[in-house]
Amino acid sequence: MADEGNIISTLNLDALDGSPAGGEDTTPAIGFISQYVKDLSVENPNAPDSLQWTETPELSIDFNIAARGIATDVHEVEMKIKATSRTSQGVAYIVEMAFAGLIAMRNIPDDQAHPFLFAEAPRLMFPFARRVMADAVRDAGFAPLMLEPIDFNGLYFAQMQQQAEAAVANPLGQA
After folding, report:
1. If you count DSSP H runs as helices and E runs as strands, how many of each does the chain have, helices first?
2. Do 43 and 90 meet the contact criterion of CB atoms below 8 Å apart?
3. Contact (Cβ atoms closer than 8 angstroms) between residue 63 and residue 21
4. Contact assessment for residue 73 and residue 105, using Cβ atoms and an 8 Å cutoff
5. Which of 87, 118, 123, 174 is in Cβ range 3.0-4.6 Å of 55 for a Cys bridge?
6. CATH of 26-143, one of 3.10.420.10, 3.90.1150.10, 2.120.10.30, 3.30.230.10
7. In terms of C-beta density within 10 A (0-12 exposed, 13-18 middle, 19 or more buried), how is residue 36 classed?
């Protein structure tokens, strides 16, 4: 009798999770497996002199987002960030980082997977990457680099619109 109770519980749990009994699970699902620093480089080429400079530095920040399939239903999103601080006296610091996340995606159509990988995943990863960058700059002897929030969704859709406009202006087969 106890075995029958277990069978009934199992059947009820299957019905609750949305998967058809005995069939393939077609429920869309996305989740982070992990986030990690893939590469980090900190250069302080003019230390210790640069630590004494009083001129307000010019800061340039470069971002690049890439995504690639790792396995069936697993993707890696890589966010590359490069921060360069320079004054008229020279380069104070250069910090380059590749921060990545492994993302599991199941039953997600391509037209929804692409914006998630290139806009939403970077948005979710950014606070963690920002902290690593701030700590790296602070550990190099400078005030922590506090990167402003970035509208990854807005940037993604602007880039998609630019690509669509370029495709209309230069159709395939025309030079």
Report:
1. 4, 4
2. no
3. no
4. yes
5. 87
6. 3.10.420.10
7. exposed
